[in-house]
Amino acid sequence: MRFTRVPLLANTLKHHTKLARWSSEIAKPREFKKVMVANRGEIAIRVFRALTELNKTSVAIYSEQDKNSMHRLKADEAYLVGKGLPPVAAYLTIDQIIDTALKQNIDAIHPGYGFLSERSDFAKACQSAGIVFIGPSPDVMARMGDKVAARQAAIEAGVQVVPGTPGPITTAAEAVEFAKQYGTPIILKAAYGGGGRGMRRVNKIEDVEESFRRAFSEAQSAFGDGSLFVEKFVERPRHIEVQLLGDNYGNIVHLFERDCSVQRRHQKVVEIAPAPALPSGVREKILADALRLARHVGYQNAGTVEFLVDQKGNYYFIEVNARLQVEHTVTEEITGVDLVQAQIRIAEGKSLDALKLQQEGIHTNGSAIQCRVTTEDPAKGFQPDSGRIEVFRSGEGMGIRLDSASAFAGSIISPHYDSLMVKVIASARNHPNAAAKMIRALKEFRIRGVKTNIPFLLNVLRQPSFLDASVDTYFIDEHPELFQFKPSQNRAQKLLSYLGEVQVNGPATPLATDLKPAHVTPPVPKIRAGSKPPMGLRQVLVKEGPEAFAKAVRKAPGCMITDTTFRDAHQSLLATRVRTYDLAKISPFISHSFPQLFSLENWGGATFDVSMRFLHECPWERLRTLRELIPNIPFQCLLRGANAVGYSNYPDNVIDKFCELSVKNGMDIFRVFDSLNYLPNLFVGMEAAGKAGGVVEAAISYTGDVSDRSRTQYNLQYYLDLAEQLVKAQTHILAIKDMAGVLKPEAAKILIGSLREKFPDIPIHIHTHDTAGAGVATMLECAKAGADVVDAAVDSMSGMTSQPSMGAIVACLQGTPHDTGLSLDEISKYSAYWESCRQLYAPFECATTMKSGNADVYKHEIPGGQYTNLQFQAFSLGLGPKFDEVKKMYREANLALGDIIKVTPSSKIVGDLAQFMVQNNLTRETLIDRAEDLSFPKSVVDFMQGNIGQPPYGFPEPLRTKVLRGKPKVDHRPGEKVPPKDMDAAKNDLEDRFGRPLRDEDVMSHAMFPTVFEDFERFRQQYGPVDKLPTRIFLTGLDIAEEVDVEIESGKTLAIQLLATGKLNSRGEREVFFDLNGQMRSIYVQDKEASKEIVTRPKALPGVRGSIGAPMPGDVLELKVKEGDKVTPKQPLFVLSAMKMEMVIDSPIAGTVKKIHAAQGTKCSAGDLVVEDEFRSRVEQAVCRHPFPQTSRFCLAFQALRPRWPARRPQFSEMLSQMDVPQLLSVNHKSSMQANGSPVINGDSRRSSMVDACGRFCSQPISGSPELLVGLCFDEKHESVNVSVDKASSLSQGGSPLDTYLKVVTVDENEADVGHQKSETTKGTSEPVFNYRCNIKLSHDAVENRTVRIEVWSVSGILRRKHLIGIVAVGLNSSSADAQEHWQQMIQSAGITVSKWHPVQPANS
């Protein structure tokens, strides 16, 4: 078909014809008493307010989903409609609405906008029911609601229209035909609705069909009719609309125009009245045409005529909205006319003259802007958001009007309805001023709990072209910068979320002890306000560089001090948990009182990851904060050579970048060390620090005792040779790092004296720990021997595993050539602060278990910084009561590893191995003997591979070979072949993942600790700046009614009070109530303990080699297999992590991964089943090929001649160990001991379709003890019954009897009554150790009270029997010959020769 242009027609209709039409529709004037609003939300409330002002009763309708909606509560009366219907459908039920109106004696219905507001059938239904419809007549609505009819009316009225179809179309072919005739672009519009639904612009003819289908579907869904209207699309138009009011007497007035050009996907975003920068001539013509069209159709009540205005001033009619518009508010603001009241009065029959609304009396005053604040996320394509509004604070003040319904704290934003939350209207003398007021108001809004479009609206309002009023409908599309948002910090609400989480679920940072932080406020010594800190050594470094700095140190009189309180001291005493909050408070005092300090050690080492992992604060921010507060004292950090501040080998460019960023953020001195004194690793760190412009302090890690001339390892020459290499590598300062505190005073004199003699120009710096209590004496000897700098901690943070006392060293050197120049009085004030502050960290206090120093450090050599962490780790692994044993085993583990230097990370390796040995009852000898069968901690395997470097005296053999089991070895610097890291690509990836710009420092944190940083970033985004909270509040939260002031930035302080915690609701949440800055706020927190489902994790079956469990409590850090994977023996299955200890668990067998029971990140208890392998041993394959009847039981016996027993023992043990069938009983004598010294013997009695039970015994050759306990089960008729040993204690060396307990397993699942008595025989005879006579009542058997004799033998007793070596675990109990044949086939296919069958029934043998 072809579309013909309709020429513009003159208005030829006679005026008397129109008057006749109007006069026929005139209703008699009446006063409404009750008016219903057939709508919801803010427009319903807007109408209610007008009704209240007119002294009329307001009536609401609401859906089931809206029962808590504000519009229901604002009305005088409210009635449910649409029960059982979907949310939108409820407001479209014309019959129910009319029925409700009739029942409640409603005089008139206001439709609002949307829903039924443009449905002529609704207006007609009202009219038929004798209810006034507040709006145009049904006929006018039908004509104006039909875009084609409205277009035809405009043509008839002589109003220019855009070329388009003469009527609605329903097929894509018609749309394609129109596009071919008029060209593209075209626009598709819903014929029977608006609001942007069913509207599509099509730029290419080939896209018409698809766009038509989508628009048709959308219109069908929204309006019940998918018919579309097609128009030629006007390029770059402004969208101008005219507000009209008409009475029932033929009077029509306009209330000027609005500019609605700021649109997104044809949805209006910002509306302005009057239209700025619209030429007056164009305005007058548009207003005149709008009136002409309204008069032509006999329009009554409120309506809007919409036009498109192109760049040349040409304008085209597009449609009429026969209802009140969302943006009517701006017209009200500039004209002073209440449009809703006018609608109601006109509907009552009043004339415009009666309302004093003559055209000549309507004027504009100033300018108004409306912004629709919606619950949409502009950063995600305006994705609607729903949920509970946690916080709502609006913008108010002069020139601001708010129309809303759901905008209040606690409101639930429903996903079922439009996302409009509040309309904000700003009015002022002109457009720029109105925009300024709007910006101010939107900035005042605080909405938390749901996303809003406020950031987008602010960008629109600040756009210069918007302020210049030169916008068209392309405005949003052509300004992508409108979608660049500065994310809201939302700090207050996030902090409340954190405090609520702590209140409901307990500390977010795990507390190591039951002690709680004290209610103390540490006393901060005062400094004179406005005074600047004195000059310090840092000024020398900044001005003259590292070399001049080193010379200045060497020339300085006396002995200088490095204060370790800010790092190593609290690492050693308080598990590295001291927060920046407390460090910053005392920092100004340090800056003013101790400018003589050589340095302040405050960064690096374990503090880096712990700050993110447990304190939830950024280590880089800590460094910058302290640098700002202490500008005059050099900062010192700990750099682990090629490991930087991590525990892995990083690419060299990462180490370089780390040092560069460290200097940039305020670091000065890098104490570079390697845990094995491995020079290639040391050199990497030294070069990186030097290139970054830092002071290089190369540190030699100390162990052994140079004063003991009998020791051949780590003697004086060893240290002198190392020092020479470091000096050649151009270190600025030479350091001795005595991590364990084993440097004795005499050894210090020898070592430091020798170094000073050999290197007279190099500054020497000494670090030690005071674990043995000799630290002060050692430091004094160092000073006398020529050390330039010694490390110390302030008195209240010194001693034990920390550094020696600063006050003691200062006092002892006072008045000597080595005087430090520090004031004891100032040290006393400094100490008082930390003495009080330390009480805040009581949950991490090492003094809980360690009351004093201990000289046994000279034996176990545990580093001071590791001691408390190792202790807490032991407690977390259930080894707390055995910590003395762990310390002793630490020495054994160290010797097993070849007596290595013990500094992070090598100290961690020794600690992991020590706890592993204690957990598994291993000695150094048994560790080496059994190494091939043990799953070692990952750190041990890495060390043996050479992944942290080469130990000075080589790797221990044969332990290394046994541990590695063929794994590759590294014989070069571990990081040497690691490819460089693309930091830019990493940054882009992280920014995409976390949705915010990241600093280079953030990327570096991720490079060092990927998982830790990601967890920290997620925590920070969820809970905000928790580092601003006082320490006690951070750790354990607020007490009820307690108040706290939180300074989130300079000049911004939050006043927070905890009011109450609510009861558990049906969703497992508790509502926590706060007072924030004088306003009540509440948040819902999931109660994890009360709401969690009780999950019982399956346990690994003892002795089942395919049932692989967690050997210790911890987290599944990594899964290395997936279900269905084929695995080989000793193939890694998963990595378990507890605290910082990692263990790789290998598969003990070849098979297939049947099931993974614990996902990555799962917290496991010891023994929890993690991976289940299907074991395909020869025995199992045979059983599977020859299944038994369900009721069968079988008996198995092995025989060997006594002289051949020693030779056959290994094969016998291996054969038994491969019997993987459901009934399993393992005896691992001596190798798995209980606390009382008895062996752990485990049993299980699951049913199977093949067998009920079978016994399995594993032997370990233990000199002087029984290697194997064997149970032989006979009844008085020599018929075997199903009895297994469940638990036993060991034979003591004194020869006392073996105590055995019995467990009876029956064929069915009924319980058996068991009573037993025992008679002892003398050990050493050929008789059993014990004879048990048990009376067993089998409920499933006709035979009752059968007496069973249980003989428990030691290996030696069995060997005296000569004719039997083996087990009889269960007896075959079936008369089926097939079952017997199956059994024989299974045994033969398994390659087992059976020399004797025990009779099980008289008929079968």
Task: From the structure above, extract its key features.
eight-stranded parallel beta barrel; disordered C terminus; alpha+beta; disordered N terminus
Question: Can you describe this structure?
Answer:
With 1405 residues, the protein is α+β, with helices and mostly antiparallel strands. The chain contains 45 helices and 50 strands. The strands form 13 sheets. An eight-stranded antiparallel beta sheet has the order 13-12-9-10-11-14-21-19, sandwiched between helices. It has an eight-stranded parallel beta barrel with strand order 23-24-25-26-27-28-29-30, surrounded by eight helices. Strands 3-2-1-4-5 form a five-stranded parallel beta sheet. A hairpin with a 5-residue loop joins strand 15 and strand 16 (383-384). The longest helix is centred in the first third of the chain and has 18 residues, at 280-297. The model is unreliable at 1-25, 1176-1380 and 1389-1405 (pLDDT under 50).
